[in-house]
Amino acid sequence: MNVLYLILPLALLIVFIAVGAFVWAARRGQFDDLETPAMRALHDDVGDQRAPRKAPPKAPPKD
Q1: Residue 34 and residue 10: Cα distance in Å, rounded?
Q2: Across all residues in the chain, what is the average pLDDT?
Q3: Radius of gyration of the chain (CA)
Q4: What DSSP string runs through the chain?
Q5: Contact status, residue 62 vs residue 56, Cβ threshold 8 Å
Q6: Beta-carbon-side half-sphere exposure of residue 49 (alpha carbons within 13 Å)
Q7: pTM over 0.70
Q8: I need a labelling partner for 17 at 20 to 30 A (CA). Which of 38, 45, 52, 63 fits?
Q9: Rama region for 52: left / alpha / beta (φ>0; ψ in -120 to 50; rest)
Q10: Model confidence over 6-35: pLDDT tens digits?
């Protein structure tokens, strides 16, 4: 029975922290657009492609 005096306040504290984090994120706009980030991964961006690597220069032939 004594453990309830520790577990119950600790559980309530964790719940209040989780609810506070959710409210904070919702007010900051974290959940405004849920579709665009998932769709962005499916599209190829031409401007983001890296330039192909060039072959290293060949050493001059030894005489």
Answers
A1: 32
A2: 83
A3: 28
A4: -TTHHHHHHHHHHHHHHHHHHHHHHHHTTTTS-SSHHHHHTTSPPGGGPPPPPPPPPPPPPP-
A5: no
A6: 7
A7: no
A8: 38
A9: beta
A10: 999 999 999 999 999 999 999 998 888 878
The 10 Å Cβ neighbour count of residue 58 is: 6
Cα 13 to Cα 59: distance, rounded to the nearest angstrom: 69
The amino acid at 33:
D
Per-residue pLDDT, 19: 98
Report yes or no: 49 and 55 within 8 Å, Cβ to Cβ. Answer: no
Secondary structure of residue 53 in the 3-state scheme:
coil
Q: How far apart are alpha carbons 19 and 14 in whole angstroms?
A: 9
Two tokens at 55? 């072959």
Residues present in the chain in total: 63
Q: What angle do CA 50, 38, 44 make, to 5 degrees?
A: 30
